[in-house]
Specification:
12 strands, 5 helices, 23% helix, 3 domains, single chain, 217 residues, SH3 type barrels
Length: 217
């Protein structure tokens, strides 16, 4: 598999930030990586994101399908627009925009309802389970397009490797410096830390957004 390193390790002499490495699963979630030394060593999963090239697009669940783009088996766009306020909309938008880009499609995106050009490239995103197009983000943002409940629950409850990494770094920041400079990747708000270095909880200040609890023994 291919994995992308999230930070320099040993000042870049072992692993370099944003570099793609060949890796294999060596048990308990850790990766065996041939690092900058040329030797294979085991590293913890919080240092990496899985690279997009390992995603099998055919196995992903595509969301945001509508009749104009995808055929008569799907509802019209008007049928899946909601005139209601969507809870956690900003968090879902952040997640959708920050996912891996799986493909760039040629052509111009056009708003089905107004005929106006949709700004930006026509991209296909994925998170390893679901996939969606950039026009889906546009319609969800502008018109509150209905997305599957299962996808919303997945976004709000599941922590990505990047989120786990940020939570761990937030804890280190708090115990090393007495404050947390990082912000929540889902909503952009600050973190709180309660407890001590053995048992603690890192929690976004937005209720039920993102948190991690560690209990010592």
């Amino acid at each position: 598999m291919k994995i992308r390193c999230l930070e320099d390790v040993h000042f870049g002499t072992s692993l370099k930030k944003d570099k793609i490495y060949e890796a294999r699963d060596c048990g308990k979630g850790w990766y065996a990586v041939i690092d900058e030394s040329g030797e294979e060593f085991a590293y913890p999963p919080e240092l990496f994101d899985v690279d997009t090239t390992d995603y099998d697009e055919s196995s992903l669940i595509m969301i945001g399908l509508h009749r104009k783009r995808h055929g008569d088996d799907y509802p019209t766009l008007k049928e899946i627009i909601q005139n209601i306020q969507i809870k956690d909309k900003d968090a879902v938008l952040r997640y959708m925009k920050s996912a891996f880009v799986l493909a760039v499609a040629p052509g111009i995106m056009q708003d089905v309802l107004t005929g106006e050009k949709i700004p930006g490239e026509w991209l296909v995103y994925g998170d390893g389970i679901y996939s969606w197009e950039s026009e889906t983000i546009y319609y969800f943002d502008k018109y509150n397009m209905t997305l599957p409940d299962e996808f919303i629950e997945h976004v709000l409850k599941e922590k990505t490797k990047k989120e786990i990494y940020i939570l761990d770094k937030a804890a280190d920041d708090f115990f090393d410096n007495g404050h947390i400079g990082l912000v929540c990747p889902r909503c952009g708000n600050s973190f709180d830390c309660i407890g001590n270095e053995i048992s603690y909880q890192i929690k976004c200040t937005t209720n039920d957004c993102l948190k991690m609890t560690t209990r010592g023994v």
